[in-house]
Design goal:
The chain is of the alpha/beta class. It has 10 helices and 13 strands. The radius of gyration is 20 Å and the shape is globular.
């Protein structure tokens, strides 16, 4: 049995991780007293008494928590944005490549991907890796997301009696092109330049779709939708948590609606290829609290422990 401590266990991600540990008998959870949650001395003591530590904190608090570690056996799984582009940390998306999976397995420091970045990398990383688009391709992405990823204050507004009228519609944000996931999206996907990204928060609890349009006439080597679909199918062959969905005909696509909340509560990511040979629309669908946060964190823990990666997730 391993000892696990969650620093930030009262946040949205921390609470979801706790839910995923229910019924597991291979983990001993270390809990901090309510009145000690912000006590650095007590936090440091508990961090160094654990085998695995989840950091579900703001970036600065996460960096501080890492500095507390003085025990070589402590393995950190960080759900903040603080370390996702640090090459010394493993990036917690094992399905991207065998190299990613092996680094997660052997590392003492793992950075859990951001939710938008997970959806983006799931689509774009294979495109670059397999030469479908060059690294300097001008990538644009847009996304719809439930409000659960916006934090406790925003959740309270969405679910409160005094919800502002404009909260009833999708709201575009990060319009300055400075979204906090952009550095991660660029670095992990192997892009030379920062992509453009247009996220929208919507009036439903959880789930998201990230979409990347590609005009094939702009490619050095034009590809068909079937070829791209086969590429994704091969890239994610054998993946437990990533599923490439069947390629639809033009007629089937006419009557199909891609709902963003269909995987709410499910720890899985789906990849879709829509459009035509001239205009591809590549989409990923996931739960921003599942494969985009707590589920990804627990999957990394399972890999680090050397057990079935789906434990507690399916």
């Amino acid at each position: 049995m391993v000892k696990v401590y969650i620093d930030g266990q009262e946040g949205t991600t921390g609470l979801k991780i706790l839910e995923r540990f229910e019924g597991r008998n291979d983990i001993e959870l270390i809990r901090i007293a309510e009145d000690k949650r912000k006590d650095p001395v007590e936090r440091a003591r508990l961090i160094n008494s654990a085998d695995y530590v989840f950091l579900c904190l703001p970036d600065e608090a996460s960096r501080e928590a890492v500095s507390f570690v003085d025990n070589d056996h402590v393995r950190i799984i960080d759900a903040s944005t603080a370390h996702r582009t640090n090459p010394d940390w493993a990036y917690g998306f094992p399905e991207l490549s065998a190299e990613h999976r092996e680094k997660i397995r052997t590392s003492n420091r793992v950075a859990v991907p951001g939710c938008y970045a997970s959806g983006f990398a799931a689509v774009v990383y294979p495109l670059v890796k397999n030469g479908v688009i060059p690294a300097d391709y001008p990538v644009f992405a847009y996304a719809t997301s439930g409000y659960s990823g916006a934090g406790k204050k925003a959740i309270a507004v969405y679910e409160g009696d005094d919800k502002p009228f404009e909260f009833n519609s999708p709201r575009q944000y990060a319009l300055s092109q400075q979204h906090k996931h952009l550095p991660e999206m660029q670095a992990v996907s192997g892009l030379t330049f920062k992509p453009m990204f247009n996220p929208m928060v919507c009036d439903y609890f959880s789930g998201m779709v990230v979409s990347v349009p590609i005009q094939t006439r702009t490619l050095d080597k034009p590809v068909t939708a079937e070829q791209v679909h086969k590429m994704y199918t091969k890239h994610y062959a054998g993946a437990n948590m990533v599923e490439v969905m069947p390629l639809m005909s033009a007629e089937e696509q006419k009557s199909f609606f891609l709902a963003s909340n269909a995987l709410s509560g499910v720890n899985k990511l789906q990849v879709f290829v829509f459009g035509s040979d001239e205009q591809l629309l590549l989409c990923s669908r996931l739960d921003n609290l599942g494969k985009g946060a707590s589920g990804a964190a627990v999957q990394c823990l399972n890999i680090m422990m050397g057990i079935d990666e789906t434990t507690g997730l399916v």
